[in-house]
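Dear Dr. H.,

I hope your travels went smoothly. While you were away I took the liberty of generating a structure for the chain from your last submission, since the lab meeting agenda had it listed for discussion. I wanted you to have the full record in hand beforehand rather than looking at slides cold. The sequence, exactly as received, is reproduced here:
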Amino acid sequence: MATNSKGQAWYTKTPPANRNCNFIIYLYRSGYLNLLHVCRFCSTGLPSDVVVDVDDMIFHLHKFPLMAKSKKLYDLITEQEANFTSNAVNETTTTTKTTTTMAEEQCCHVGFPDFPGGPKTFEMAAKFCYTVKIELSSANVAALRCAGEALEMTEQFCEDNLISKTESFLSQTVLKSLTHSIETLKSCEHLKPLVEHVGIVECCIDSIADKVLAMDPALFGWDVNQTTNNFIDELTLLNPQLFNRLITAIKGKNMSNEIVENCLLRYAKKHISGTNRATRKPQHSHKQPSEIDQKELLETIVTNLPEQTHSRSSPAVKILFGMLRTANILNASDNCKSTLEKKIGSQFEQATLDDLLMPSYSYLSETLYDVDCVQRILSQFQLQIHSQSLNCVDDTPAALTLVGKLIDGYLSEIALDANLKPDKFCELAAALPEQARIYDDGLYRSVDVYIKAHPWITDADREKVSGVLDCRKLTLEACTHAAQNERLPLRAVVQVLFFEQLQLRQAIAGTLMATEMVVLESERSPGTTRQEVVEVHDETVVEEEGVTWRAAVRDNQVLRLGMDSMRTRVHELERECTTMKKAIEKIDKVGPTGWFTKKFGCTFKTQVCDSHEPTVVETRKGRNHRTNRHRHAS
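The corresponding predicted structure, in token form, is as follows:
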């Protein structure tokens, strides 16, 4: 390798001889700009007479193969040769120049600064000009088609040219396969605007839309997830502009809304930051898009979402919540946020507690979590439930119960927020209808957490917060805990005790009825035998033994022992209520007027436990009568 007279290039002017048309790479350093360039020589054994500069890569080629295939290169080289001839006639000092200098000056220089596909595509086009066989694929056919258009390699100029070869490959191979069409469309991202001019993008989009429509699982009853996952994953590789055009074309073909929604949600999960909390690291190694691009992409995806919800699943709801969080961060349009809230509300029963814990990004809100957003989603869910109830949908109660448990869990989490106002807590707790909660144990837990985390609230607020509870729907465990809870207001404790007593009375009444039924059955058939089915350790066995009157009496005694223990508990509760009533009356008579009433907001003018069982009342009367007789005797 040698240098020229100016020391600007380090390469031999004539590459090594080779019968095959290969390109040998050399480095070229500019003496003035001190930049490295890559030089490629065609090793045909002949000195190169054309230098083509493609994006800082220099190709040393030959005139005749290029001029035979490319009309563009033919015109450029012919024009430069005409200029060389005119300069040679006017030059008067040509005899003093050496042969090497003359050859360097007469070498044609052609430049393509924005060649479609770059130097790699030009090298394949140059090989085609040298009649070297090139391998066409779905990844390079679009670039070669654009290269043929740029170099004007048409059939009119030469038969079996590059444009006809690529067009034939596109129609016979690429457009007949869904996978190849998507791959070719992906390769068109960096070939604009020429690729739009030749129509490859439009052909690929139409081909993909037609093939997706032909494989629509809804037409044959197939499972959508099994037949569309592969091509949906491939669609997520497209850039936002091409993906939007493809979705528009698919929707124009009356495609199933379920497939369209799956495509949009999968694309959002892959390209929108924050849609997946599990992966905190960036999903792509390339440069992340700006906030403006993310906002535009998010609003575009939300606009294309179908109005009716089809992907009713927990992963789909999780993606929608992630999109809503991103919309709040990027300050997306109100229409975008309301659309997402409506989509989430239509399938709110699929959400989890982690989805609801969205931080508040507004400067106007003092709470840690965005409670207003959850309340709006809950309103959308109630509208959906109302419409389903009108249409007699069977799964309405189940969905309502799931959302009731979800809201109770959410209330327990946000109750720890010191900035959460009592009115906001009560508003969200009372937003659900009564049938949404079978038991109020979860709501009681939320109330207890809120009162414990906010010890500074007034008694009126404490009464208001505890007023959202329905003591009739508390289990015995919750009632026992509430009766001993010092943080609850006195009115709430009295209500809990009262309803706990009612539950015990109902249990006793049920036990008595069961006992009487056993006695009646035993009296009707005292000496007969019967078969009794007993369930032991989840297995059913049949006992065939004679049951006598004595065995029935023994069972009756066991039931009466249990009833006596429950009656003792009722007596204790009655004594507690009577003691509380006497203490309150004494305070009202001796203490300041209205002090207790103003502090606790209630008066006890009636008997708290006024629905006694006849047996209990008679027992107490008999006890008082015996006491009076004893006093008279003494």
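Two observations you may find useful: The chain is about 60% helix and 5% strand. Residues 349 and 399 are 5 Å apart (CA to CA).

With kind regards,
E. W.
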